[in-house]
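Quick one: Acyltransferase family protein from Microbacterium pullorum, structure tokens please.
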Amino acid sequence: MPPFLPATTARATARVTWIDGARGIAIILVVLFHAGMFTVPTGLASPWWEPLNLVFALLRMPLFFLVAGMLAVGAVQRPWAALWRTRLAVLVWVFVVWTVLRFAYYQVVPEPIDLNQSSWTDLVLSVVRPSNGLWFLFALALFLVAAKVLVGRVNRWLVLAVAAVASSIIFGGVTFDNVAHDGIVKYFVFFMIGLYFREPIIHFVHRRRWAATAGLLVVFAAAIVLRGMTGSLIDALTAIPVGLVAVAFGLCLARSLARTPLSRPLEHLGTRTLQVYVTHILVLSSLTSLLLPFADTAVVAALRPVMPGLMSAVAIALSLLIAAGAARVPALRLLYVAPAWFSRAATRVPLR
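--- reply ---
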């Protein structure tokens, strides 16, 4: 087997439960970020939530995509038909369904903040230029296709070098003026690191304890402070190293929490990130619209320091409940699962 091809042994593809915990941490941070996005501009939350959420910018999506890469080792080595059936179909289907659903929702319900999700132009262009939070699904599908093409054909160090340079340029301030295109270029390197180095990453995390996790947090915090004092060139050069420190902290935290009572809730959440990811924005939007008329009341004002956290907890819980309810109704189940006629390949190819 070429040295740049990930292993497909049972160990390399076996489920590691704390990885689900890491996904749980990532989705909590994503929901918290979006909760701040809704509540700070509308006056429902304290302004300091905005810079606080920015601190985790190099942890949220890098952790999400690196873990996705770790979980894609076996998938990208399946035949194309099997890759479509087991991974790509659901991403494409859910992306399209929820793009249309969000558009329809905001045709009826006014946007509490300027999300620009009621534009017909953006709806039409979403198949090539997503302009909302669903871009993660779009990017992940592209990453799986790219990995399928590259793995075993192009040297991994060349792939990582090109991806790292491109990512650094975007982190340095160059932009496509589109959240999806910028995100794709920024985070592809993290996905491929997770894909290529799954086993070394697991070995590294298994050797760390709480003291090492705390140390990584300190290094990450110090790096964020230093990046805040520098310009775009340093931002570009340090984004990936700092992001990897942040991801190492997230993974080690998930591993450490696996020994606590929090393990099961985090792992349960981590196995349902798709459901939460696509649902929570509409929940947050609805909660924001409901609370806005009461923004100046004493009760809501007293909750401003913790409002994003409270709304995140409610949004996650409601998203899980909505998804669980939808799973019981055949028609609604299609909100989260691709139908057989869409996901079934022309030829049934056994997984390997």
